[in-house]
């Protein structure tokens, strides 16, 4: 681990960003250029003290998840992210595998979407980052780890909770769509990928998964229109648009309601409620 190179790199990239670059309000007059240390720490979901020690060349070696979070917070390009990993004493991530890294272009677009649900996902259905309205509508997945972060895993292994977000009449179609999407990811990534490992895990843990998997359907899961069910506001009809990275390894999903519709009103209510529960 090269503490000097790591500290200098973090400082330079923190100083190069403005609050509006990462979806924050500029706020009061600033004494220094760029983001504050506490803002970077907040974006990376680490303590300010921990981040400060990294910049002051006295922190411990950052873990791979922490480095991934810092790469997202600082909006690093893939080459910059790889450099960050190496100076911190880790191998650069395999760009052919899914990871927690979010493409800067998608992240910048997401930062500007504050009035409609939006999230970035990878080919295994893992939510990499979501805005406040997406958390309110779809649930907060930030605390999930391992395969639990994959929507297709939760769909088949924990159907009681995951499927409540969809109407009963749509759940069979959603099951087929989840499996078809995973097969598309496997076809791209190959037999030694995390997609293949997820298939093995699901085959062992869910008999329900095995049946549609044997049908060999292949398709992406981004239908144009969907109905979601929220525990507080009920059914919400939204249109789904997907914006892919050039290599199609990540997608920004934006969910919009028709103007002046009942669903638009429900999304406004969710913007106020957040993840709170209404008390009757």
Automatic annotation (TrEMBL):
PROSITE patterns: HTH_CROC1 (PS50943). It comes from the Bacteria. Residues 33-81 form the HTH cro/C1-type domain. GO terms for molecular function: DNA binding. Pfam families: HTH_31, MLTR_LBD. Gene3D superfamilies: 3.30.450.180, lambda repressor-like DNA-binding domains. The lineage of its organism: Bacteria, Bacillati, Actinomycetota, Actinomycetes, Micrococcales. This is Helix-turn-helix domain-containing protein.
